[in-house]
Amino acid sequence: MLKPLRQGLPPLDPAAVSDAASFALPARYEAVREARRFTRGTLDRWDVGDRFDDICLVVSELVTNALRHALPAEAVGCEHAASVRLHLMRWTERLVCAVRDPSHETPTPRDSDDFSAESGRGLFLVDSFADSWGWHPLAGTLDGKVVWAMFRLGTTG
Length: 157
What we know:
The chain contains 3 helices and 5 strands. Helix 2 packs antiparallel against helix 3. A 5-stranded antiparallel β-sheet has the order 1-2-3-5-4, covered by helices on one side. By secondary structure, the chain is an alpha+beta fold. Helices cover 27% and strands 23% of the residues.
């Protein structure tokens, strides 16, 4: 079982962020496609170089996990259900994608030796493509958790 992780997560000081974008996702599985479209458009504007495909894949996995595992089954497809929110934040040399959901459940990678399985590898892929990842519970008036992944970006010079 994963414990909440904070190491590797850049400070969430808004003044330190070069660029930020956020997108509220409806509680329906089609939202994964909408999240990919939003991510591609945002990353195109930010010019993230060779990490583009890695980031898009990880966002897709994090959003899929939030919709599948963090929302009650009866909430999926319901217009008024608590939503999932995607945040993208770019600093000069790193990018963080974070997915907020209303669940308090720990994101847990599945143990599986079946590499041909159609599902169950999301967190394995996140771990493989991101430089670091983790999660932490939300505090204050927000309920749920944030699952994040960080990517180091190449610098031009």
